Amino acid sequence: MKNDVPVKFFDISKRFGDTLAVDSADFSIHKGEFFGLLGPNGAGKTTLIKLLIGLANPTEGTAEVFGYDINEDYRQVHSYVGFAPAEANLDREFNIFDNLRFHAGYNGVSPREQLERAEQQLKKFDLWEKRNDKPYELSTGMRKKLLFARSMIIDPKIVILDEPTAGLDLETKEAVQNNIKKITEEGVTILFTTHQIDEAERLCDRVAIMNEGKVIEIGPPEELLESGQGDLVRITLAEEIDSLPGKLTRDGLRVELVSEKKEVRATVADGSEAAADIMRALHGAGIATKAVHVEKASLEDLFLQLTSKDDKTVSKENRVGGR
Ligand SMILES: Nc1ncnc2c1ncn2[C@@H]1O[C@H](COP(=O)(O)OP(=O)(O)OP(=O)(O)O)[C@@H](O)[C@H]1O
Ligand SMILES: [Mg+2]
Fold first, then answer.
1. Which residue has a Cα nearest atom 5 of ligand 1?
2. Which of 70, 96, 108, 192 could form a disulfide with 161, with the two C-beta atoms 3.0–4.6 Å apart?
3. 21 CA → ligand 1 middle, Å
4. Which domains does the chain possess?
């Protein structure tokens, strides 16, 4: 290793035609960290990961893994990084034991070790009974676990997991999350992507929120919440309105109209003060209100605030995680 920094992005960008999938990402991931990339569909999470492991070439900038450049020192980079893609790219000709064993083999693990590690990982992920099955004979959740098991087979220093818990039932999801936690306890660095804000909030040491290719916030979940604005104000309207009164959109407050345009929502530092201001503006514009709620903002509220579209409405499709 050239240094102690598992991942460092240097102003890295990736363009596909007109789409800037990753826009000047510039941050580091610390040793032993459980790091989450959080963002809506198409935010650029998978592309950022792919750049790191050579599955996509940067348009500009670069990245390093323990000081090794992703382009120049491709081999070293690969020797440190285990990767589980979001979608299965397993060899359907071989059973799952052989899938793991051969993967270890391609990555320079000795034949004896290959057998031991394949067995160890299959047992760890509760797939040993299925060892003679072909990948397509597994359920979606089992395949997810297998991809995770395979990423561990090279004894990596960094494990990159693209949506490791998407589509898993609650029990399997918890098992996978516990497996990830266990790995970090062994000093391995984790970079994982998720849409599930509660998951990021609960598991990650630090989170980077991505939207439209850009990293827009980065930090420990609790700090993001503090630096972001702390209270969520929800005001239910007596009837739906087409747009917010001009005063609300001008005041530098980030106020949105949601739920079929019958609720006004704002994430702010001081909820009671903002609630009074917003109520005054609504009533001033002749808009009747039914109820006011002030509650502590979650990471989801912050996320919605950061990634909401310019039309100031948040549709159900744009909501992430859900509650
Ligand atoms: N191979 C490709 N060719 C063209 N465009 C691509 C390619 N891969 C990704 N993109 C585009 O880059 C953008 C970012 O995609 P990416 O897959 O990185 O998003 P994501 O954050 O992983 O989304 P999701 O949560 O849906 O997995 C999208 O607009 C996507 O259409
Ligand atoms: Mg993705």
1. 16
2. 192
3. 6
4. 7-219 (3.40.50.300), 226-318 (3.30.70)
